[in-house]
């Protein structure tokens, strides 16, 4: 009986995927045809390890599956006319993981970002404390930026070795160094200090703040992602682990965003 029930569940799941979800997806696309899309979408790609554990696979397989999903997401963002995308691939906290887990993850990130750069579809911009990364990964990120800087298409921020608090402290440090190089005293600098001046030194300086931040895996927190920039963002939390994130889930996030009345703190 148990085997029969499992077989029935698999059949129902197959029908949902093959018939119902495509119809539902087309309906969502029609609903969103005339709405204003978010200009900047940030995504916390969460749940790779839990996805792997749920299938009895090692963590590295979850990271590989998550890496493959990125291409799909960028295609969906292009179709939705999103201009800026920020993907959080690795936090500063993640850098403290055991070498047996961290080193394969860093290699997957390296391979993934380079594959994105080679497609020549998106302008890649690395955001994070790159000085904390292995030299070869940091060098590759800089090279990916260089060879894609003149491309059209989505501006793609790759957040690696990223932490929101670290970003703010780096921005203030950069601002202080800039003014010190111009010969200003500390008193003069404090008179010039403002949120606008600090924003000019963030990793994402010159870009619009994220309109929509999506986090997968069911966790309902930001964990420091775009801590400064997300002050007026809309948030969407999805239960699916990142490797299972579907276009339907993305469209639902856009629908949720479109239904909200944004007051920007007013």
Descriptive key words:
266 residues, alpha/beta, Undecaprenyl pyrophosphate synthetase, 2 domains, 9 helices, 6 strands, 50% helix, 13% strand
Describe the structure.
By secondary structure, the protein is an alpha/beta fold. It has two domains: 1-31; 38-258, Decaprenyl diphosphate synthase-like (Undecaprenyl pyrophosphate synthetase), CATH 3.40.1180.10. It is 50% helix and 13% strand. It contains nine helices and six strands, in the order αβααβαβαβαααββα. It has helices at residues 2-31, 48-54, 59-79, 99-118, 135-148, 164-181, 186-192, 195-199, 247-258, and strands spanning 40-44, 84-91, 123-127, 155-162, 212-215, 234-237. The chain has a six-stranded parallel sheet with strand order 3-4-2-1-5-6, with helices on both faces. Helix 5 links the parallel strand 3 (123-127) and strand 4 (155-162). Helix 4 packs parallel to helix 5 (135-148). The longest helix has 30 residues, at 2-31. The radius of gyration is 20 Å and the shape is globular. The N and C termini lie far apart (58 Å). The mean pLDDT is 92.
pLDDT below 50 for ≥5 consecutive residues: which ranges?
Answer: none
Give me the number of helical elements.
9
Structural class: alpha/beta
Give the count of structural domains: 2
CATH superfamily grouping of the largest domain: Decaprenyl diphosphate synthase-like
Task: Please state the second-level CATH architecture of the largest domain.
Answer: 3-Layer(aba) Sandwich
CATH topology (fold) name of the largest domain: Undecaprenyl pyrophosphate synthetase
End-to-end Cα distance: 58 Å
Beta-strand content bin: 5-15%
CATH class wording of the largest domain: Alpha Beta
Count of beta strands: 6
Strand order of the largest sheet: 3-4-2-1-5-6
Biggest beta sheet attributes: 6 strands, parallel
Radius of gyration: 20 Å
* Global outline: globular
Helicity, in percent?
A: 40-55%
| Average pLDDT reading | 92
N-to-C series of helices and strands: HEHHEHEHEHHHEEH
